[in-house]
Amino acid sequence: MHEILGPDLPSFSRNEMQKLQRSGLDFIGVNHYTSYYVKDCMFSACEPGKGSSRTEGFALSSPQINGFSIGQPTELDWLYVHPEGMEKIVTYIKNRYNNTPMFITENGLGTIEKPNSKSEDMINDVERVEYLSSYLDSLATAIMKGANVRGYFVWSLLDNFEWTYGYNIRFGLHHVDYATLNRTRRFSALWYKHFIDQHSNKACHHHHHDS
């Protein structure tokens, strides 16, 4: 990384370096939503595009290659459904950082609510359930292969103000009517509750059995 970014990296004093080396990391937080194909631009000729500049790391990224998409497109132009990416990123971090404990700090699917949407369309978010189910399945595979993952957080509990998108994009397991602030459980909230119930029972059973 230093070879690529050089002077753009912050500098640390000797005292700060000693602290970093002594304490190490408590855990690594991973925000993961989607995957892209990546092309090296340091030793290969690259057309201009996302990621190809020096400050971005000389790695051109794209969701398509030779006409093939990396996954199912969604309503968000940057988010493609590629569940295998979850196992790959967690496994990479496991191997690269000596299996430091990990938390999946964000994972979820955003949708765009159309004007005049019917209330049942706002609530019946089958595509979010399919997304979460497939990504959690991929995460479980990584854990079964030894990744030290301590926790997982869905983004998000409620529809909210999303950085550059404002209120246009909704990630919530619960729908929020911004005019009244009424909150309504989506299908995904019921599904996720059931998912946790199922797996916490298994975890309790194993713990009891082991002791």
UniProtKB/TrEMBL annotation:
<dbReference type="InterPro" id="IPR017853">
    <property type="entry name" value="GH"/>
</dbReference>
<dbReference type="InterPro" id="IPR001360">
    <property type="entry name" value="Glyco_hydro_1"/>
</dbReference>
<feature type="active site" description="Nucleophile">
    <location>
        <position position="106"/>
    </location>
</feature>
<comment type="similarity">
    <text>Belongs to the glycosyl hydrolase 1 family.</text>
</comment>
<dbReference type="GO" id="GO:0008422">
    <property type="term" value="F:beta-glucosidase activity"/>
</dbReference>
<keyword id="KW-0378">Hydrolase</keyword>
<protein>
    <submittedName>
        <fullName>Glycosyl hydrolase 1</fullName>
        <ecNumber>3.2.1.21</ecNumber>
    </submittedName>
</protein>
<keyword id="KW-0326">Glycosidase</keyword>
<dbReference type="InterPro" id="IPR018120">
    <property type="entry name" value="Glyco_hydro_1_AS"/>
</dbReference>
<dbReference type="Pfam" id="PF00232">
    <property type="entry name" value="Glyco_hydro_1"/>
</dbReference>
